[in-house]
Amino acid sequence: MERPNVSRLIAQGIRLDEAGQVSVDADVGRVLFDLAIELENVVPHPVDVQHVLAAIVLAERDGHVNDQTAISSSNEMLRGWVQTYLPVVFEQYGDQLGAD
Q1: In the chain, which ranges are E strands?
Q2: In angstroms, how far is the first alpha carbon of the chain from the final one?
């Protein structure tokens, strides 16, 4: 019998499954895209959606983001955590995160 794919909510509209794969609702994807564009002017790296998503996952692992966190362009706290974690993402994964 095949075991059902169990996933957990990282933040509103973002899920992480047992295999470590992250899925994003369509409306949240647009917000992540907008955040990437905005933050590219703040950090000295080419930020893309995968980098923003990885920063959110790292923030969740450290307890700064949870399943009640709204992924919206008006969430300044979220933007701050993403900006804080982007250098860690680039240090660990480089510019080509998600390229393969």
Answers
A1: 7-11, 14-17, 22-24
A2: 32
Question: Would the CA dihedral through 20, 25, 28, 30 be positive or negative?
Answer: positive
Contact 58, 88 (CB under 8 A): yes
Q: Output the DSSP codes for 60-81.
A: HHTTSS-TT----TT-HHHHHH
If pLDDT is split at 50, 70 and 90, which confidence band does 96 have?
A: low
Task: Supply the pTM of this predicted model.
Answer: 0.87
Q: What are the tokens at 85?
A: 């974690």
Please name the residues in contact with 28: beta carbons below 8 A apart, sequence gap of 6 or more.
12, 13, 14, 71
Asked whether 48 and 97 are in contact (CB, 8 A), the reply is yes
pLDDT, position 94: 77
